Structures are given as structure tokens and as C-alpha cells.
Amino acid sequence: MSNIIQVTNLSKTYQSRGKAVTAVSNLTFSVNQGELFGLFGPNGAGKSTLVRMLTTLLAPTRGTAVVNNFDVVRQEMQVRASIGLVTAEERSFYGRLTARQNLQFYAAMQNVPRAQIPKRIAEVLELFDLSHKADAAAQSLSTGQKQRLNMARALIHNPPILFLDEPTKSMDVQTSDFVKALIRNELVNRQGKTVVFISHELYEMENFCDRVIILANGLIQAIGTPAELGAKLPRRALFRLVVEGDPDQLAQSWQNLDGVETIAEVSRGATQTTFDVALVDERVWFEVVKVIEVGNGRLESYHRADDESLRRIVAHFSGGEFTAKDAENAKKNK
Ligand SMILES: Nc1ncnc2c1ncn2[C@@H]1O[C@H](COP(=O)(O)OP(=O)(O)O)[C@@H](O)[C@H]1O
Ligand SMILES: [Mg+2]
């Protein structure tokens, strides 16, 4: 069984105040066993709808999905036993119970055999570096610890498949790095689990996923390894430059040049500003420099930073919609 998830002609249409909204439309794809599979796309693309169908929370309008060899409609219980789900929104703990007591509750809900529960709880607490908090009330944990406990909860029954719907959305950088390293090294590489990782933010997602699927407007825009998708992108040149001069005025003038694709301010200091400018062709660089001179600015330094990044791949395949917001997020995170 190498296709651990098989989706065939899957569609979902919501009825909302008498109006039909098709959130995902006729999706067909599969996920291989042991794969770290990224599901990306802008807000409203249909990512959560797809995941809710694959995790039996929402009935498909048309088509089928088979998860761990079980049909999500006809074998709901078996599918649930096969998966763990983490979403960014949920608040899932009894604050006055301890971390361990919360996990005992979820273990019982997931029919973990009684005799195995203490050992399994010790394992997941250890994995998420929470052993020292086992007997602390859930409400006394820090935000990052609660987020780790939530992941521990999703794995309590040791499912072969884990769905993570924007798990890193509200995480601080340390928690997010910790969780991503754990997913890659421990859950996927060592334990052989299959992980479906959903995100609309790609900052620091490089070299994380084995394959990615890009969704926009409820349709599959692209699927493949990051390298395969990167190879399909048009060539262009990216420069990182440090300038002195009025940054807003410079950005405005560059925007007006033919052949400038995007301009992102990376950081602003007292006298110097760092920009990333993406050009359709390296010959446009000459024009970019001329704008600085004309504006009485000074080019302090620059280097080529050509970029086949995931961010660029997703922006390209989801119709560019994605670029501005993601650049903003990247800036915020620096
Ligand atoms: N319960 C619902 N009723 C009606 N429309 C919905 C519902 N949930 C989601 N949608 C719509 O379906 C589309 C996809 O939403 P969603 O799956 O949440 O996307 P994503 O997770 O990629 O942001 C959006 O247009 C959204 O407004
Ligand atoms: Mg969503």
C-alpha cells in the first residue's frame, strides 16, 4: 500500500443562505505512505474543506476519498482511528485537569487499550518535551506548551497519518521550529508516519516537504516535489540591495519600471534600507540602479539572490495572489 490517501473526483459545495459555494472542485490526487505532504494556497483556496472531508468531519458532495484503505464516508470509524488532526483554532483541554489527565481522557476516547495508556502518555509527553509538566494543570502551561500538548493529544492513539491544518499559525518561532523538526525527524523519518501539513504561510518552509500540492479557487494548480515545480517557473533575477535614500520614493519609482516584478522591503535602518527586487530579466538591473542615482540615493551593496523558493512556486501557481501577503509575513517574522 503505497497510496495511503487516494482522493478521486472529490468536490464540496456548501449551501449558504440559499447560495451554492463550491469550495473544492473535482480533486484527484494521492499521498504516498511515509510522505511529508504540504498543502498550500491562499486563504479561501479550499484547504480546510479538503482536510475536513479527509478527516470525516464533513461529507463530500461528490467523489470519494480513501484514507489508510478506508472510505471516509462508509468507514468513518476506521478512518478516525487511522488519523490524528490538529487545527489552529481548537481549544481542547480541561484547564483544571493536568496534562496527563487530559491525555488520559483522549486516550480513552480513542479506545487506546487501558494497559497501554500510561506508557503511551509517557511517550508523547517525552516527544513534545512536556514530561516535566505532566502533573501541571493544563491552564498553567504556556501557549507554546499548550500547542505541543495539542499535538501530543492528536498522536495519543499512535495513528499512521497526521493532518495538521495551519498548526504553526499562532506559534512563536521557537515552538514552530521545534514542531517542524519533530515532524520531519521523528514522526516522518523515524516512525514512518504520513503527515499532511497545511499552510498559507510559507516563510521558512523551504526544504520541509517531500511533495506539495497547490490549491487555489478550489482547484489543484500544481503537484510535485518543490524541485519539480521550481523547474517549471519562468527564469528571472532576484537582487538583494542595501541603499541610502528615501525608501518609499525609491520603491515607488521602481514599481513604475517595466520588468520589475516585485519589491519587498526586508529591513529599514536609520539611514539604510534593504530591499529584495525581483526582475523579469537581469538586464532590468541597470534601470533599477539608475533610479537610485536619479533620486540622489546611494547603492551601498547588492548581491544576486536568485530564488526558486517555495514561496515563489506557490505564488506562481496560485496566480500571484499570494505574493504580497506572504512577503508581508516574511517581513514581520524577521
Ligand atoms: N461552512 C461553510 N459554509 C459556506 N461556505 C464555506 C464554509 N466553509 C468554507 N466556506 C467557503 O469555502 C471556501 C473555501 O474555504 P476553506 O476550505 O476554509 O479555505 P482555506 O482553508 O483554504 O482558507 C471559501 O470560499 C469559504 O468562504
Ligand atoms: Mg483553512
Task: Please work out how many helical segments DSSP would assign.
Answer: 11
How confident is the prediction overall: mean pLDDT?
Answer: 89
CATH superfamily membership of the largest domain = P-loop containing nucleotide triphosphate hydrolases
Reported for the largest beta sheet, the result is: 6 strands, mixed
Strand order of the largest sheet: 6-7-8-3-9-10
Percent of residues in beta strands: 25-35%
Indicate the percent of residues in helices.
Answer: 25-40%
Find the structural class using helix and strand composition. alpha/beta
Bound molecules: adenosine-5'-diphosphate, magnesium ion
What top-tier CATH class of the largest domain fits best? Alpha Beta
Number of strands: 14
Q: The CATH topology of the largest domain, please? A: Rossmann fold
User: Segments where pLDDT lies below 50 for 5+ residues?
Assistant: 321-327
Taking all Cα atoms into account, the compactness measure Rg is: 23 Å
**Could you tell me how far the N terminus lies from the C terminus, measured between alpha carbons in angstroms?**
42 Å
Whole-number total of structural domains:
2
The coarse overall form would be globular
CATH architecture of the largest domain: 3-Layer(aba) Sandwich
Order of helical and strand elements: EEEHEEHEHHHEHEEEHEHEEHEHH
